[in-house]
Amino acid sequence: MRKAFAIVLSFTLLLASLFEMENLTRFPYLIHHFLEHKEKTSEFSAFEFFTLHYGDQEASHDQEEHEEHEDLPFKPHDCTSSQIAFLNAPLLESASTQSYSVSYSNFYQSTYSIDFASSVWQPPKMILSPQPF
């Protein structure tokens, strides 16, 4: 079950990276439109359908049935754009003429204590255990 879910999820991510996911919602209309052509001509194949709508004959066929072809997948007729505006704000100058001085010391004051270091860092001591009788 996990393997099947991973395969379906991977396939979905692959499709999403190749084209807009909105086109997946248009596939039922593609099947419906294919069946309409199939009713008109009984020997109409899927290859002829794709050649007619996505191949060499696309321009001439779209002129005949332009309204019906707007909902087919991979035929979007939208224009998406985004504009970014940058405004240069005027610099505000300070009206005050007061000057401020900050004093600080450059001298290093150590927080290191020798008493602490001498109590912690000592050489190991030998502990003698009592001898058994």
Can you tag this structure with a few keywords?
133 residues, single chain, 44% helix
* SSE pattern: HHHHHH
Overall strand count: 0
**Fraction of residues in H or I helices:** 40-55%
- Poorly predicted sequence stretches spanning 5 or more consecutive residues: none
DSSP helix count?
6
**What is the average of the pLDDT values?**
75
Shape: elongated
Q: Give the amount of beta strand, in percent.
A: under 5%
Rounded to an integer, what's the Rg over CA atoms? 40 Å
Major sheet, described briefly? Answer: none
Q: End-to-end span in angstroms? A: 70 Å
Output the structural class. Answer: mainly alpha
Describe the structure.
The chain has 133 residues and is mostly helical. It has a domain at 20-77. It has 6 helices and no strands. It starts with a helix and ends in a 13-residue tail after the last helix.
